[in-house]
């Protein structure tokens, strides 16, 4: 079907003869015949543009995260792209697509660092002995003081926890039994089977350092344990050997021997 503007053009071209046809009069006659007004043309153009506007709005909604406040509760939702978010205590989280977290803002800052989640979320928790950090999903609960880990409940009736570094306390919702997981370990619970299943044991390695610059030591440890290590002092050198020790044990020894502070971050 031709648009009103196309009909106008077709009419003029079909009837035009040099020096015989007044185009302005022809257009005027055509519009009067088909009752085409300026308002009609504007309305038609609006209906032509509207689908594009709606599509653009939908794209924005699907790509950008939603930050919602419901009273004292805050909620962050990721749609088709991952979302990085900083919690009030400077702990950082990464929401994978189609995941969300919510927390009570006032309680989080004053007393209880508790986060409710759906989907798959990676956590890098700032250490705080006085206020443990708790993550609650539909199937699982994780309690930590400060570490790096991921909780994945994106599959139906399955919760998987992977610890990159540090130590966490893992349990199934409604169950009293808990399991301590350390860096390199992975465990899961399912809707049918409430007991915790260890999927992957912790990772330990053997290292020998002979007057090695601390940045080089941290680089090697970071590569092996797949976590970024950063020290507050980089002018130190280390002579030591480690065998079958966890990353946390190694860090604790280095901190005491070299009088430094080492921080674990997401890569």
UniProtKB/TrEMBL annotation:
Pfam families: FecR, FecR_C. Residues 80-168 form the FecR protein domain. It comes from the Bacteria. Residues 207-265 form the Protein FecR C-terminal domain. The chain crosses the membrane at residues 46-64. Keywords: Membrane, Transmembrane, Transmembrane helix. This is DUF4974 domain-containing protein. It comes from Bacteroides stercoris.
